Amino acid sequence: xxxxxxxxxxxxxxxxxxxxxxxxxxxxxxxxxxxxxxxxxxxxxxxxxxxxxxxxxxxxxxxxxxxxxxxxxxxxxxxxxxxxxxxxxxxxxxxxxxxxxxxxxxxxxxxxxxxxxxxxxxxxxxxxxxxxxxxxxxxxxxxxxxxxxxxxxxxxxxxxxxxxxxxxxxxxxxxxxxxxxxxxxxxxxxxxxxxxxxxxxxxxxxxxxxxxxxxxxxxxxxxxxxxxxxxxxxxxxxxxxxxxxxxxxxxxxxxxxxxxxxxxxxxxxxxxxxxxxxxxxxxxxxxxxxxxxxxxxxxxxxxxxxxxxxxxxxxxxxxxxxxxxxxxxxxxxxxxxxxxxxxxxxxxxxxxxxxxxxxxxxxxxxxxxxxxxxxxxxxxxxxxxxxxxxxxxxxxxxxxxxxxxxxxxxxxxxxxxxxxx
Amino acid sequence: xxxxxxxxxxxxxxxxxxxxxxxxxxxxxxxxxxxxxxxxxxxxxxxxxxxxxxxxxxxxxxxxxxxxxxxxxxxxxxxxxxxxxxxxxxxxxxxxxxxxxxxxxxxxxxxxxxxxxxxxxxxxxxxxxxxxxxxxxxxxxxxxxxxxxxxxxxxxxxxxxxxxxxxxxxxxxxxxxxxxxxxxxxxxxxxxxxxxxxxxxxxxxxxxxxxxxxxxxxxxxxxxxxxxxxxxxxxxxxxxxxxxxxxxxxxxxxxxxxxxxxxxxxxxxxxxxxxxxxxxxxxxxxxxxxxxxxxxxxxxxxxxxxxxxxxxxxxxxxxxxxxxxxxxxxxxxxxxxxxxxxxxxxxxxxxxxxxxxxxxxxxxxxxxxxxxxxxxxxxxxxxxxxxxxxxxxxxxxxxxxxxxxxxxxxxxxxxxxxxxx
Lengths: 421, 421
Description:
By secondary structure, chain A is an alpha/beta fold. Chain A is 46% helix and 14% strand.
């Protein structure tokens, strides 16, 4: 179970508490009206899971265990979620041997590196684009179609290529005309909130994860939040947005290398959802930063401790790593001072570092909160991701922005096209 | 050659320009007096390069080409630099097949992942610690000594284990007593400025890079800066620090996946050097953020474009990627609107995206500067890294901090020890 605690004062006055009530109602209405689809993916995607199971049986190379690589072509919300989950859960026993490769950037060096030794006949390519117009995704798709010699209408393209898109999009039509399987992203689910739709569930299921359990995690937090059992979540969003001018930077300090990609997913969710012009025509937003502990204690911590007091810090820890390692009882002469952790488990050191750093910052008056998951499991992953999604919706409502659009990224696109005309 | 241009106003008044003069003199004196050693590593490390060449010949498994993995155990300044360079240059022809593995975090899952299939007899382990007291580094070293069965005083430890430390440290003494080769980090070079000492040069040379050319890059920028041929660098530091309250966040937007780790290296350098209590007892500093283009256009750009106006942005691009790829001339029906890049090179798209985004932000009044390197080469890498180091020294001098210490990270350490007693 996900547990979390705020170490900052959340005593708000009566009128402010009333605002919390209004925001709660707004979210409830977004959910119940179906206006915003991510809230209930644990219900709506049950069908998608069946469809995925069906696909795994009917796709010839996959069902014959000939697939060694699943290549996801997508960018932003189309890749960050599945990457975060796979990075987090890759030590699970049910994770199979299939490599999960993400092609996001039109970087020639990186492309060579990612595709080294990869053969078409052992690969399943998934192109993910809501509208079909993302220039990187389409360019990389064309590159792969050529490199893998997947011809339109051929048996090979049918067996080795899948798309995930919005129903009725040009990409769907293309798929239909070429006997290519298409999965759908619901219209009411935005890219960065789409990890628990086919966008994430398909690749994650293909590499062996139990995606139903992920949705169970989402369901659990959903029930608790909408039963008003998670007041700390609302309070945190309230505090963050009320003090957005003072604490304009929110650090997510995750104590495990397995959470590095989750940080990147969070950075997109938080930055792109909240950095907006609000209803009062003000430019608002909060700047997210993802850190990995203990590594970044040796990189960024100095700035938090002695630099400008403009940061809040969320510590995220894992209670129990299942595959553990002990620090051997070896003494290096003259370095006996490092022996205090000998015979301890590595996770004990890692979590003690998290606690020591959190306590130090709390003592300094930095707004700190601590989140802890039981262990690295599908369910805890679902809980965690949904927690951040709800926090984002709450915060967006407090700031008075449209949490679900991204008008600012359109500005450069026209200019890009002009450069090639 | 590294070129760069500031797209913000650097018209300072006469007294401010005088300050630039004072800061230049301070840096010159730090360099010439030998107080700060990183400035002249291109001179002082020539001997180290000879020592490395000697080691490559005398180390039995390396000289017999039996080494398949170089395992660097270090954290923060002991790992970020070499990792950045290897990530940037790994497509060079002289990069050999040896895997370069970095063990930084006491994370049991990650450790399993990094060491999967790695055998002791094919590995060379390098422990890097200036003082020898870094708890993660020492714990991981003990773990590897046990896992690889490297016994004190044995032939194996002599052949497969190396340390990089400060002369006279306990780690050096340990090395001496066990016939282990020790390389030295000069006393006047801090960890995060140490990439062009043995800390970076040894692992980078072992995997095939021409490290002399890296130092040539540093030398070039050093000559130009101290001949006052790079006024834009000083002006940029001046602007950043003068407007630190307004633009408190500095984004490095690097347009290539090969620069991802360089971003992480920069984040440490900038954050840990400048986030300090200054001579006037004020908490000062600038918050660094590293982004990768074009990927993060789909993640963070919205926040820059429409969120709070608290960010400056440095665009970093590569003029010529040598291994290039063409976007095939394939039309996907109904998606003809993506055909405008067909037959173009991927690097053209990537760099056009960089230009389009930079122009959009300049038009919006965001303080933007653009840096460009010729190509991915050892020399350009040396230029780039030294540019950022000089920029950090300049900025630290303007802010009135000690750029080279990190007192803030000590606070949590005592508390950590207490948790185990």
